[in-house]
Predict the structure.
Amino acid sequence: MIVELGHYALIMALATALLQSVLPLIGARRMDQSLMDFAPAASLACFSLTLFSFFALTVAYVTSDFSVVNVWENSHTLKPMIYKISGVWGNHEGSMLLWILILTFFSALVAVFGGNLPSTLKSNVLAVQAWIVSTFLLFVLLTSNPFARLNPAPIEGRDLNPILQDIGLAIHPPLLYLGYVGFSICFSFAVAALIDGRIDAAWARWVRPWTLAAWTTLTAGIAMGSYWAYYELGWGGWWFWDPVENASFMPWLAGTALLHSALVMEKREALKIWTVLLAIMTFSLSLLGTFLVRSGVLTSVHAFATDPTRGVFILGILVLFIGGAFALFAMRAQTLSHGGIFAPISREGALVLNNLFLTTATATVLVGTLYPLVLEAITGEKISVGPPFFNLTFGPLMIPLLLAVPFGPLLAWKRGDLWAVCQRLYAAAGISLLVALAVIYFSTGAPVLAALGVALGVWLMAGSVTDLLTRAGVGRAKLSVLWPRLKGLPRSAFGTATAHFGVGVMVIGIVAVTAFSTEAVTTLRPGEQTTAGPFALRFEELRPNNGPNYTETQGRLTVLRDGEAISQITPSKRIYTARRMPTTEAGIMTTGASQLYVALGDETADGGTVVRVWWKPWVTFIWIGAVIMSLGGIVSLSDRRLRIGAPSPKRAKTPVPAGETQ
């Protein structure tokens, strides 16, 4: 019964969303407050109905109701409970329901926390969001119904794809979708402002927290997905430039540019046209990613669906929203003023440089992702664009951007003094140079480029600390007032510095694992050894083992250092009972920031086992850096000025040093 109620709730949500997409617009046009007040109530109702529908599907999974096609195809009675729940979004239909739930969730958030928005803007935003919700509800109800029934009901299910039965996949999609779908609110703000014909600094102040929230969760989601692929797929890599990985990375790049562009617009009322365009482009890239993953044009471990009918429907949504938004933008662009003027050497100029590199990098990834698809569609020829292309095009774009990052926060608005900023960064530059020399000295034979790469990461970290210390008045104020001044800085300043610090940590991890990791593929028999980095590994045995819904062959290897056993690693190869699908489970030992990574291969005729061993120094810095970046976003969101748009009444505590801005 609850399944039918869940289906009915989706239909009711569609009806509510359709009303929400029309009535508030009419109300904003006529200045009819009663119609405009309908938008928040409809948003909350639509979210509640979608949440109930999602709950109903979850109940079907938890109770193993195999009369539901979606449950039968993606669950099994022996599956652990955590994977029964994560199985709800581990398939096309369920993940689209999660997509819609998050769409309505952001709509409800605007309804609840948008009290400081003008009534017309709020109504238009919620109406545009309802357009998106309506189209995706139609898509689910017409092509991807998660509540379709089977009669008679099978006794047992087919089980979830084994590589999705992992805690990482229980966390990764919700986080990713919160960011991926969260940019829809930025899109709705942009379209609503174009409809209203009013785009100013206040608009940027309202849209920036939503951009930051989406960016923060997307950062965490991409990092979680990267780590899942690293340890679950047994390839030993942290990023593969897979087209579906790129589909989530492109909105992140564009969203990062939007975040910085909105800051310029808020502070200086500059870059208005560009900021609105970025808001449209960012969510357009999210829609493009949805099309790539679900249309069947890509074959990937990340792809959900291969039904071209669904692809055509999503392509229609893509054309409707992207085409409509750009058409509206073209009509309104001439009426928008360009905003404030600033010198090239200024904080605005640094943020424009940031946008230039980020959007160019986005275009590079877009071309590398779509070119093989377009070529195949036109000529039938299949080509592969992989890491060599992206490393040669994307990497060089990032180096000058990262070098410039510490300068931006230290430059003044409107007109900055580059020489004065260089003087403030002397210490950061000196520390970075010393680190580069230390890497060359202590890592025998280390490539100079690797040492410079590590130094670049340290430069970012030291630069972010320099920003905070400079704002606190180090070098100009007495020691006794430095701490109060540092505590008195706005949280957004700490958030920015934290995020930039995290980028530096990530850069160090990427450079170190690229330059210093080692790989060995060997055949071992019980008692034989191999080496990896500073460790030796002794192969002890292969032994059978049973899990709740799989059987596995587990290898046991003893890790030795200087001849003494310090740990054991147990990689395995599993066969899942229902699908008879094999998976490789890597064995990982973490020591400090580095990891010893072992994956089992096939058994040989002479009783040996193929073993792949990687030594990956500082590899965890990649994900630690991403976590620090997300933490920076959370810290910035906690700034009252960002959430409410008004300064705290308690702020007149500590004076700001002369010549400094916050």
